[in-house]
Amino acid sequence: MEKNIRIRYHNKQLEKLEYIDGKSDWIDLRAAENVSLAKGEFHLLDLGISMELPEGYEMIIAPRSSTFRNFGIIQVNSIGIVDESYCGDDDVIRMPVLAVRDTEIHVNDRVAQFRILEHQPSIRFTEVDHLGNPDRGGFGSTGIK
After folding, report:
1. pTM
2. Which residues are catalytic?
């Protein structure tokens, strides 16, 4: 079922949000400012939008796969979580980044991506002595190829 989400753009130059047809159901986020960062510098990168998520939903924000290569920045909180309470006119979505080299980012550079998910359902944990399943083998256990 399609959800209607109200959005406010804070920069008139910013390209509007849209799906990339046939490639992914994640939606790209663009820089809403021009910024020069020196290696080692931290910055809250303005993504230029505020939105009102439906009750019971949250936004997961992650860097695009090419962000590190193209801009030399990493998102310092690994992924961002925005819940439906962050919905005011001035609750602008930002991406906390650290530059690993000198870099420049310009308005409309695609730096992040997001998807909107329902909140996790209520979970009850039951403690046991054994799970009774075979061990998979840990990190890297599925091989290289």
Report:
1. 0.85
2. 83
Mapped to the 3 state alphabet, what secondary structure does 84-104 carry? CCCCCCCCCCEEEEEECCCEE
As given in the structure block, the two tokens for residue 28 are: 């790209």
| Distance set, CA 61 to CA 19, 28, 77, 101 (Å) | 15, 9, 10, 22
CATH number, domain containing residue 105: 2.70.40.10
Query: Edge-to-edge strand order for the sheet containing 57-63?
Result: 27-30, 110-118, 57-63, 80-83
DSSP SS3 for 71: helix
| 136 in any annotated domain | no
Backbone phi, psi, residue 71, to 5°: -125, -10
61 is a domain residue = yes
Residue 137 lies inside a defined structural domain of this protein: no
- 105-117 residue pLDDT tens: 999 999 999 999 9
Longest CA–CA span in the chain (Å) reads 58
Q: pLDDT by residue (tens digit) across 61-90?
A: 999 999 999 999 999 998 999 999 999 999
Rounded to the nearest 5°, which phi and psi values hold at 80? -110, 145
* Domain total in the chain: 1
Residue 59 is encoded by which pair of tokens? 């936004």
